[in-house]
Amino acid sequence: MKRLLLASLIAAAGSACGLVDPPGAPQVMAHRAAAGKWPENSRTAVRGAVAANYPGIEFDIVLTADGVPVLSHDPWLHQTLCTHADGSPLVGERLLIKDLTLDALRTGYRCGGVADPEMPDAEVVSETHMTLAELFTEVAGSPEMTLQFDIKYADGLTLPAADFVQQVVVAMRDSGLPNPWYVSSTEVDFIPLAVAAVPDGVDVSLTWPKFKQDDNSTLVGLSNELLAQLGLGDPLAIATQTGATGLLLQYRVTDRRIVEAARARGLSVQLWTLNTADLLDAYCSWPVDKLITDYPERASCL
Amino acid sequence: MSVIALLLTVTLAQAPEVTPAPDTATVPAERTWGFGFDRVDLLSEAPGTFLHYDLPMYGTGALDKTLRLLEQITVVWRLPVQGFHLNLSIGTQSLTYEHPLVGGLFLTGGLQTRLLFPSGANLGVAYRAGIFRLGLSASMTTSGSWAAPGIFTPQFLPALGLGIGLP
Lengths: 302, 167
Fold this sequence. Notes:
The structure holds 2 protein chains of 2 kinds. By secondary structure, chain A is α/β, with parallel strands linked by helices. Chain A is built from 10 helices and 11 strands. Chain A has helices at residues 2-16, 43-51, 102-108, 132-139, 161-173, 191-197, 217-230, 235-242, 256-264, 277-284, and strands spanning 27-30, 56-63, 69-71, 82-84, 109-111, 146-151, 181-185, 204-208, 246-250, 268-272, 290-293. In chain A, the strands form 2 sheets. In chain A, strands 1-2-6-7-8-9-10-11 form an 8-stranded parallel β-barrel, surrounded by 5 helices. In chain A, strands 4-5 form a two-stranded antiparallel ribbon. Chain B is an alpha+beta fold. Chain B has 3 helices and 8 strands; from the N terminus they run αβααβββββββ. Chain B has helices at residues 2-14, 50-54, 62-72; strands at 36-43, 74-78, 84-88, 93-102, 105-114, 117-129, 132-141, 155-165. Classes of the chains: A alpha/beta, B alpha+beta. Chains A and B meet through helix 1, helix 7, helix 8, helix 9 and helix 10 of A and helix 1, helix 2, helix 3, strand 6 and strand 7 of B.
């Protein structure tokens, strides 16, 4: 009889599992404007995303030497995906975008004209860098599209954080565009500046964990996972200390406990980068605000 | 999750009956107490989130979720004061108390810490049968840690424990 009672208790607890937190309805964001379909952060990708009527796009921003925001994932020209304007490959030293004016960038270099081995289905289109002003023009007819500005400020490799605030955050704030938007960054010295500049209701998200060039993503992920579990590198703590109003978390190291706690504290939560249908299905019911993917069409919650 | 409940129910059903004979080897409450190894909890009740949050997502990354499983595996030590245990895992370190009720059934309670920073509590029951221990408790966890001492966001979950150790 006692055994039956205990078995019933266990069955009841098992049934309760998974029902303790209400499911969410995350919005699907096209990573780098859908890098799985078009060259990442390209004019072609932004136009394609607008034509596909995606709910939102994420794009990366770097400033040129003359302070013009352009779309680029790295503070430098990608040595594989970018070429000289004549199509010859980039060799030798790393070319920082902060050392090139917009004119020099456009006359000297192209990106997207080389097949990306990590995105085998993506179109190959050689283009100049897209400016933020161009992006504003492209999305002007899609007022409901959410815009995620991923700020690629990096100390020593880009112009200062204050310049990003002025040229990107303030520019969007004063653009008159009605689109929902938010800002994200890995840099703890950028976030308080951005928080001070955004209007009420616009999130500034801490991107976690931080990957550096040439980092082994698995090792970085595992080490951050352990630090988080030990309570020594908690992204919620970092977000709170910097004043961030959101968390942009890599899904592999995302602890559901942190997600629940973040939402309970009023922070928005975005997960990156989920690229298979199975992954997207699994996370579509999570109580998060955004799922970021290179392949929006693969998401059942699109 | 009901599959897990079913498996545990079957395990329980296969456990040997506790006989009424006063055999100290099968009546944990009467065994000689002293500091030493007690058991390993393959499923820990502190914080008790693995079954809820990580196991259902196993298909999204076996390596990550296996790490979560390892992080919560707990080595439990008996302390010199009868009924008290020290539970040590990567994710949680906790102090628990077991009060014998009847047969192999115990009332349990515990305080959870993360590197000794208070981070939660458990209250529930446990059943010991031979080398097996099954625990069922209400777990309250917070995000408190040395990195974020000011954050107190409680979460409540039912928690299931499965341990194997000394009879």
